[in-house]
Design a protein that fits this description.
Low-confidence stretches of chain B: 281-287
Oligomer: heterotrimer
CATH superfamily of one domain in chain C: MetI-like
Number of helices of chain B: 11
Shape of chain B: elongated
CATH class of chain B: Mainly Alpha
Largest sheet of chain B: none
Distance between the termini of chain B: 11 Å
Helix content of chain B: over 70%
Number of strands of chain C: 0
Strand content of chain B: under 5%
Chains: A alpha/beta (310), B mainly alpha (287), C mainly alpha (314)
Number of strands of chain B: 0
Strand content of chain C: under 5%
CATH class of one domain in chain C: Mainly Alpha
CATH topology of chain B: MetI-like fold
CATH superfamily of chain B: MetI-like
Number of domains of chain B: 1
Low-confidence stretches of chain C: none
CATH architecture of chain B: Orthogonal Bundle
Structural class of chain B: mainly alpha
Shape of chain C: flat
Mean pLDDT of chain B: 87
Order of helices and strands of chain C: HHHHHHHHHHHHH
Largest interface: B-C, 43 and 44 residues
Number of helices of chain C: 13
Order of helices and strands of chain B: HHHHHHHHHHH
Distance between the termini of chain C: 7 Å
Mean pLDDT of chain C: 86
CATH topology of one domain in chain C: MetI-like fold
Chain lengths: 310, 287, 314
């Protein structure tokens, strides 16, 4: 049973330099309790995809397609209905906890606020629940820490607060945007372990450029390149039998696999290349790759790839 | 789009992209033209009184397009000559303030230590007085007239340049190009004029343009209070003050000079805001 | 926090000493010998004997630095000398005048904030809309408008043409109908400055990640603005209100003169015109102390409001 299904999604927004096609046709689905990893380089549109799901985008953004959550198309419901889904049904853990926590509001209040809004608890109960959430993410002396401000927390602790805030209303789906970015290795491992534990019963969309973290946490992995998915399959398939040259390149750039970077740079989302979007960087480029845009084909059971060469 | 390699042309292009700044620049050019050619443009002598023609309303007599004041002097001519006075006061005050302020600020920031402390305490002391109180008192002590207004406003105005130059020097002093110039044996004077001055010119231009607006407004206020040039000098603030007596019957004598002051101040504010947007390193547009 | 306050006060001392020297020297820069000026009789004749007596009495025969120390000691004890004109203590005049200025400043500040806060916020929310652009054009005009001219226009409109309000005066102790026009003149001028600052402060805050976090939690938009954004945007706003105070104090010189409001701005202009330099000196010392104190309070409250700074040195 799919909890979330994204069909033909396009998210475009105008800037002074031109129209940014951050998400340009994505089809994907997440089933209940599944952890789905969305991998890609900076600027491939993966964060915009995450934000598109809960419609957290600048007002002049154009979205086309369907985002079906529990049978409802999120692109058709009103802003008020969407607000009830945000935080309550679908929670988002934004990247960069240092700037994502409000500096002038106590940590406890920032968590309790969502609880009060969605669960109609009174101030005191909401505060108590917030303290419980801090405890759940292993923040020591939570009842005291709840009254402190974000700048009094370390980077790893702030990330824990972000997780506690996201999970406060027991959402069915969690969108985590780069939850391990900028953390030390030891702290990163702790956060990964914590997230695995607290989201075990939930569906999660994990947005990251860290394949190591994704392999630890995810059931399935998708690779995103220049606004579209280029390959997705189970974690084991991706690691053992990668098909798309971009996936292979991404794996080769891992520290354990030779640290070979992919040559070239990702294209601008304003001016996408014709044909296969990866062809300017591809070592297996053929004539057809320059002419035609490849479709998504299922190579094996549940293993999809967008490549003429594969 | 073709890219200009010349940073100056690039700034001009960016400035002309800003509509308010363009409007400001055009008005300033127009006012400068008026100031220079005031004698040619004026229909009458601005100081010649003609009591038979006193208090003529604007747009009634072709000889006096904007009417006459209580002494029968042509309002339009006085207005055109007034642009001269306001611009000259602004340029002198801003020019001298900037020179004093930059010199003291650069010395203060470059040498630091005791000389810095002394200069900065003078800045603090100046800023401890509300500026108009200070200007009024100085102008009052020096006696009425344009020179007193100019001196009073310089005393009030120099601190802005000193502070901005000192701040820029402090941040530049540690940069590699100054360090390397020093290690190559360049003298302090050489480093200050060749390396530091060009780098503080941007913020100084911004402050100077906005300073023109402030100085012109303050000078008009001082004249309005009676500390400025004495009759029959055609100064806008003084014209307003004189016109005030006839406000009930001839409101145009109050309204017209006020519009003139506002337009000139507005033009410098618009240009200054536009310059700040493009010269402020924090707001640099990434292309 | 206390340590910081003490440090700031300590840092102010050298500048305040310079301020006192500058104020003290007003008397000596003033045209004419103060003793002779004062002892000139109604007939214009000067009695040399009484001038000498006056010099001895006022300590004017002592060396300059001794005179300064005597004067400074007096000022510290609240003795600002006597007005040449009324022969009453300068400090009594200042107290009365400041009461009037304070009243005007408070009403102006309220008018200014009522106009500027909502306009600044709405302009920021509706960034680049027609409303935003017209607000900012209005603010540019307001900043560039001479306040003496605005005051006269308001006087012309409400005092003369409509005849709703008195054109000038203090009424019975500065009553409402007399305060409206001067306060409106000062308030709209400062609202123009403040609305621009409020807008830019709000715009900066609205671009921050924590605003996105609040929205992601499902916080309604009015609460995102009113709670998450405003709380942050108001921190720099405190500084703005402090700046505003400087603006209002400066504006009082002209506005009080136009409207015949017996405040400190008019007192100093009148005193200069009357060559009552003792009074000028007293006013300058007083406004400087006031100004410095307000700036200090603003600085401290700014630190107190921002939890990031509040706990820094704790």
């Amino acid at each position: 049973m799919n909890l979330l299904e994204i069909i033909d999604l396009k998210t475009h927004f105008p800037t002074s330099n031109g129209l940014v096609k951050a998400v340009d046709t994505i089809d994907m689905s997440i089933s209940e309790q599944e952890t789905f990893g969305l991998i890609g380089e900076t600027g491939c549109g993966k964060s915009v995809l995450g934000h598109s799901i809960i419609r957290l985008l600048q007002s002049d953004t154009v979205m086309k397609g369907k985002i079906i959550y529990k049978g409802k198309n999120l692109l058709e419901i009103s802003e008020a209905e969407m607000r009830n889904i945000r935080g309550e049904e679908i929670a988002m853990i934004l990247q960069n906890p240092t700037t994502s926590l409000n500096p002038v509001i106590t940590v406890g209040e920032q968590i309790a606020e969502a609880i009060r809004l969605h669960q109609r608890l009174n101030k005191k109960d909401a505060k108590q629940k917030a303290i419980e959430m801090l405890e759940a993410v292993r923040i020591p002396s939570p009842s005291q820490r709840a009254n402190e401000y974000p700048h009094e927390f370390s980077g790893g602790m702030k990330q824990r607060v972000m997780i506690a805030m996201g999970l406060a209303c027991d959402p069915a789906l969690v969108i985590a945007d780069e939850p391990t970015k900028g953390l030390d290795v030891t702290i990163k491992i702790q956060i990964v372990e914590l997230m695995k534990e607290v989201t075990a019963q939930k569906a999660m969309l994990l947005i990251t450029h860290d394949l190591g973290v994704a392999s630890e946490m995810c059931d399935r992995i998708a690779l995103m390149y220049a606004g579209e998915l280029v390959e997705y399959a189970s974690v084991i398939e991706i690691f053992e039998n990668p098909l798309h040259p971009y996936t292979i390149g991404f794996l080769d750039s891992l520290p354990g696999r030779g640290l070979v970077p992919i040559p070239g740079m990702s294209p601008s989302l304003i001016d996408l290349p014709d044909g296969c979007r990866f062809h300017p960087r591809c070592s297996h480029v053929m004539e057809i790759c320059r002419q035609k845009h490849p479709g998504m084909t299922e190579m094996k059971d549940g293993h999809f790839v967008r490549c003429f060469h594969a | 789009m073709k890219k200009h390699n010349n940073p100056f042309m690039d700034n001009i292009r960016r400035l002309s992209d800003s509509r308010p700044a363009t409007v400001g620049a055009i008005i300033i050019m127009l006012l400068c033209f008026i100031a220079v050619f005031a004698p040619q443009l004026s229909p009458n002598n601005p100081t010649t009184a003609c009591l038979e023609d006193r208090l003529i309303s604007p747009l009634t007599v072709p000889e006096y397009p904007l009417g006459t004041d209580h002494l029968g002097r042509c309002v339009l001519s006085r207005l055109l000559y007034g642009a001269r006075i306001s611009l000259i006061v602004g340029i002198i005050v801003v020019g001298i303030s900037a020179m004093i302020g930059i010199a003291l600020g650069v010395i203060s920031g470059y040498y630091g230590g005791g000389i810095d402390a002394v200069i900065m305490r003078f800045v603090d002391a100046t800023l401890s007085f509300p500026s108009i109180f200070l200007a009024v008192t100085i102008a009052g002590l020096l006696g009425r007239g344009l020179p007193s207004v100019i001196i009073a406003l310089i005393v009030v105005d120099w601190t802005a340049y000193a502070r901005i130059s000192r701040g820029s020097v402090l941040s530049l002093k540690e940069t590699e190009f100054v360090e390397s110039a020093r290690s190559l044996g360049a003298s302090d004077c050489y480093i200050m004029t060749r390396h530091i001055l060009p780098n503080i010119i941007g913020p100084v231009i911004v402050i100077g343009t906005l300073g023109m607006a402030y100085v012109i407004l303050s000078a008009a206020a001082l004249s309005f209070l009676g500390f400025g040039p004495q009759p029959p000098t055609p100064e806008w603030g003084a014209m307003l003050n004189a016109g005030r007596m006839y406000m009930r019957t001839e409101p145009y004598l109050t309204i017209i000079p006020g519009i003139a002051i506002m337009v000139m101040v507005l033009a410098f504010n618009l240009l200054g805001d536009g310059l700040r947007d493009i010269l402020d390193p924090k707001k640099t547009v990434i292309e | 926090m206390l340590g910081y306050i003490l440090k700031r006060i300590f840092q102010l001392i050298p500048a305040l000493l310079l301020v006192s020297v500058a104020s003290f020297s007003i008397i000596y820069f003033a045209p004419g010998d103060p003793a002779e000026t004062l002892m000139t009789g109604p007939d214009g004749n000067v009695n040399p004997k009484s001038v000498e007596e006056f010099r001895t009495k006022m300590g004017l025969d002592k060396p300059l630095h001794i005179q300064y120390l005597i004067w400074l000691n007096n000022v510290v004890h609240g003795n600002f000398g006597y007005s040449y004109r009324t022969e009453k203590p300068v400090f009594d005049h200042i107290k009365t005048s400041f009461g009037a200025t304070f009243k005007l400043a408070v009403v102006s500040l309220i008018i200014s904030l009522i106009i500027s806060i909502p306009l600044g916020i709405i302009s920021a929310i509706k960034h680049n809309s027609g409303l935003d652009i017209s607000c900012m054009v209005g603010a540019s005009l307001g900043v560039s408008m001479p306040n003496f001219w605005l005051g006269l226009l308001l006087m012309l409109l409400f005092g003369i043409y409509l005849d709703w309000l008195p054109v000038a005066g203090y009424g019975t102790g500065g009553d409402l109908e007399h305060i409206i026009l001067p306060a409106l003149t000062l308030g709209t001028g400062s609202a123009a400055v403040t609305a621009r600052l409020m807008r830019s402060s709000m715009l900066e805050v609205l671009g921050q990640d924590y605003i996105l976090t609040a929205r992601a939690k499902g916080v309604p938009e009015w609460m995102v603005i009113g709670k998450h954004a405003l709380k942050n945007a108001l921190i720099p706003f405190v500084t703005m209100v402090g700046l505003n105070f400087g603006y209002l104090l400066n504006g009082s010189v002209v506005v009080e003169t136009i409207f015949g409001w017996p405040g400190i701005g008019r007192l100093i202009v009148d005193s200069i015109n009357m060559r009552d330099y003792m009074m000028v000196q007293g006013c300058m010392v007083f406004v400087a102390l006031l100004f410095v104190t307000v700036n200090l309070v603003v600085d401290i409250s700014y630190r107190y409001l921002d939890p990031r700074i509040r706990y820094e040195k704790a």
